[in-house]
Write a structure and sequence with these properties.
By secondary structure, this protein is mainly α. Helix content is 73%, strand content 0%.
């Protein structure tokens, strides 16, 4: 769905207040959509406790969709918050600048936390069989 939103954003990018930021929103949708697709492909390999895996799942969704949404809002409003190069010559109302800045900050923090959880869950020792199950314990389970 996010990949599709990125494609649709690309069709509308010329209509945004800041066309350059519209291009960024288009690319965010595509790249974050691809990230979620790739994450789905390896999800069964992520070894985390249930609460951590659930946190990583929801964090990835929030970060992916949130990044696209905040970037799209920045393109619509023409804000310059946290994007001085893409927003050269543009600025929004103070409330718009604050909203976009808070959105970018929350997305950044969440995707970093999500990435750390995923890396921990994919760490090589996490991919080995459960060390708590000795050969005798495995034989008793059969």
């Amino acid at each position: 769905m996010l990949f599709l939103l990125g494609l649709i954003t690309g069709l509308a990018e010329q209509q945004f207040t800041n066309v350059r930021m519209g291009l960024s929103a288009h690319l965010e949708g595509l790249l974050n959509g691809i990230f979620l697709i790739a994450l789905g492909a390896i999800w069964s390999e992520v070894r985390l406790l249930p609460w951590a895996k659930s946190t990583a799942y929801w964090a990835a969704l929030y970060a992916g969709y949130g990044n696209w949404l905040v970037t799209t809002l920045a393109a619509i409003f023409g804000t310059a918050a946290d994007t001085p190069i893409a927003s050269a010559g543009h600025s929004g109302q103070p409330w718009q600048e604050s909203l976009v800045a808070a959105g970018f900050l929350s997305v950044a923090l969440v995707i970093i936390a999500c990435s750390l959880l995923l890396l921990w869950g994919l760490w090589p020792r996490a991919l080995r069989p459960n060390p708590d199950l000795s050969g005798a314990a495995r034989a008793q389970r059969k």
